[in-house]
Design goal:
Number of domains: 3
Structural class: alpha/beta
Distance between the termini: 72 Å
CATH class of the largest domain: Alpha Beta
Strand content: 25-35%
Largest sheet: 8 strands, mixed
Radius of gyration: 25 Å
């Protein structure tokens, strides 16, 4: 272990966010470095690669204008750590964990490496217990449970940020689910927290999300990265957020919901940095290690057996060219447990949230519903709603060929059910719904069409 910092003025070249420093005799991968300029600018960086006596350093700022001869690089012999304290709750930070809310930095209770600690697979507890988002189409048909990774697949122009804002405002964990039909369920208070991470925001999006956070007042931690800020900060922000989530979940026993938007911006930053490093590209120009990089984020969600607290993750991504087979949604789908898919067709009909029920899926839903979690009739209602809606959707293709008049009375009934299901169950512009209201709407729909036996 080195006992002091080492300073070098041996930068050989600069390529985008990368510095090549020669003559290094003591360094390690992941080490934090400081870049000092004659005009007293100070930037942070990290050692990415060491080849002989040359170190490749990634700079977390704009490198334009740096002078090779007068710029100093200081190796600190430390890895990047996050300062953690319960005082982070209610605060807004940038992607480098610097406060954006005008309040002073808190005194940390502990410091933890942002890479996190691997969760032993044998120590993982099964994700279960219902998390209520307040959106019927998710709570009723694609239920989110503690410890799950459930991505939202959006398309350009769809109201993904409005869906995220609704989940931010309305999410809660149900404490007591084994209550009589029609009764109110108790929700947690201070032991549930939302960590919101926004990557590559425009100023319009930033204003929208800040207004949402102001309405919440508390119960959140926010990490915000703007589109005009360095790409490296876009890669750091989710790691700081997940380190804070691990601290609140496993040190403080809280249930943490981590929302990251937009994963596409994260992957584009990853591609930008990989290109600067002249690495061999993979599919669509994205780096070949993107799967393992995304997994290093997603797999930090979960529960640990015997430990109070949980981390649940809702990553939001925009599918380039509306292509669900694009590498970003494709790789995300391999790692996570389902997906919520937003539909351009439903959005054009004026339905919010425009969630397409048929391709959407929560693979862990069955562990978080039913007696002891939501309501005893939840599984039956959701199965019937899905079955009849799928039939109605399928019959719409027949309707375009023979017309509604040429169809049987039963088929017309299914078509009417599909239309009303979208307008009354999926569509939700009037505010949050708890799970009892959601299931009662489903029962009433089935009864109106004489489908509830």
């Amino acid at each position: 272990m080195r006992l002091s910092e080492h300073r070098y003025r041996t930068i050989s070249s600069i390529a985008g966010p990368l510095l090549f420093v020669q003559g290094i005799f003591s360094a390690r991968i992941g080490e934090v470095v400081k870049i000092l300029t004659p005009d007293k600018r100070r930037m942070d960086g990290e050692v990415l690669q060491i080849s002989g006596d040359t170190a490749l350093i990634e700079v977390f700022a704009e490198t334009r204008g740096l002078d090779l001869e007068t710029t100093s690089v200081v190796f600190t012999d430390t890895v990047r750590r996050a300062a953690l304290s319960p005082e982070i709750i209610g605060r807004v930070f940038n992607g480098s964990f610097v406060p954006l809310d005008g309040l002073p930095m808190f005194i940390p209770e502990k410091r933890a490496p942002i890479t996190g600690l691997p969760m032993n697979p044998s120590a993982r507890a099964r994700p279960e217990e219902f998390i209520e988002t307040g959106l019927s189409v998710i709570d009723g048909l694609n239920t989110l449970v503690k410890g799950q990774k459930l991505p939202v697949f959006s398309c350009s122009g769809l109201p993904a940020k409005e869906v995220v804002a609704a989940i931010l405002r309305n999410s809660r964990v149900i404490k007591e689910a084994s209550l009589p039909h029609g009764s109110e369920m108790a929700a947690t208070g201070g032991d549930f927290i939302v960590i919101f991470t926004a990557l590559g925001l425009t100023f319009r999006e930033y204003s929208y999300y800040m207004k949402t956070l102001e309405e919440m007042r508390s119960g959140f931690v926010a990490f915000v990265n703007m589109a005009d800020e360095p790409a490296m900060e876009r890669l750091l922000a989710p790691r700081f957020a997940l380190t804070a989530a691990e601290y609140l979940a496993f040190d403080k026993g809280m249930d943490v919901l981590v929302i990251i938007t937009d994963i596409t911006n994260y992957c584009d930053a990853l591609r930008e940095v990989s290109t600067a490093r002249e690495e061999l590209p993979g599919r669509r120009g994205y780096p070949g290690f993107m799967y393992s990089d995304l997994a290093s984020l997603y797999e930090r969600a979960g529960r640990i057996r015997g430990v109070k607290g949980s981390i649940t993750m809702l990553p939001v991504l925009t599918m380039p060219e509306d292509d669900i087979t694009h590498p970003i949604p494709d790789l995300t789908g391999y790692i996570t447990e389902g997906q919520i898919v937003l539909s351009r067709e439903l959005h054009q009909k004026g339905i919010f949230p425009p969630v397409d029920v048929l391709p959407s899926l929560s693979r862990l839903m069955q562990r978080g519903i039913g007696k002891g979690h939501t309501r005893e009739d939840h599984r039956r209602i959701s199965n019937q709603l899905y079955t009849y809606y799928a039939r109605g959707r399928d019959l719409r293709r027949l309707e375009t060929i023979v017309g509604k008049e040429g169809m049987s009375e039963k088929d017309r009934l299914m078509l009417d059910f599909a239309d009303l299901f979208e307008r009354e169950f999926v569509n939700q512009e009037t505010g949050r719904r708890d799970i009892n209201i959601t299931l009662d709407i489903g029962i009433n729909l089935l009864k109106r069409f004489d489908l509830e036996k």
